[in-house]
């Protein structure tokens, strides 16, 4: 039986979610299928670009979370904790 590999398999390979045996089969498939190899190279580039993305929440969001935490019933004011 000949296994046909898909783009999903290549993505799993890029993210190291395949077994060593499956790696060999996917590598062979990429060597013989130019479209699969092209997809692999594009997926590698996208992964590298995505790893560079840095996101931060807005300051107002952080402040809202801190305010909620400060006034949450499970977090009584300091003066009540030491009583």
What would you note in describing this structure?
Residues 59-83 are annotated as: Disordered. Residues 69-83 have a biased composition (Basic residues). The chain is mainly alpha-helical and 83 residues long. The chain has one domain. It contains five helices and no strands. It has helices spanning 7-14, 20-32, 34-51, 59-70, 78-81.
Describe this structure in a few short sentences:
Helices cover 66% and strands 0% of the residues. It is mainly α.
Protein structure class: mainly alpha
Average pLDDT reading:
89
How large is the radius of gyration?
24 Å
How many strand elements?
0
Helix share, percent: 55-70%
Based on Cα principal axes, name the global outline: elongated
Low-confidence stretches are none
Order of H and E elements: HHHHH
β content, as a range?
under 5%
Number of domains: 1
Distance between the termini: 74 Å
Which sheet architecture does the biggest sheet show? none
- Alpha plus pi helix count: 5
Helix and strand layout, with pairings?
Layout: H1 7-14, H2 20-32, H3 34-51, H4 59-70, H5 78-81
Helix pairs in contact: 1-3, 2-3
Using brief descriptors, characterize the structure shown:
single chain, 83 residues, mainly alpha, 5 helices, elongated
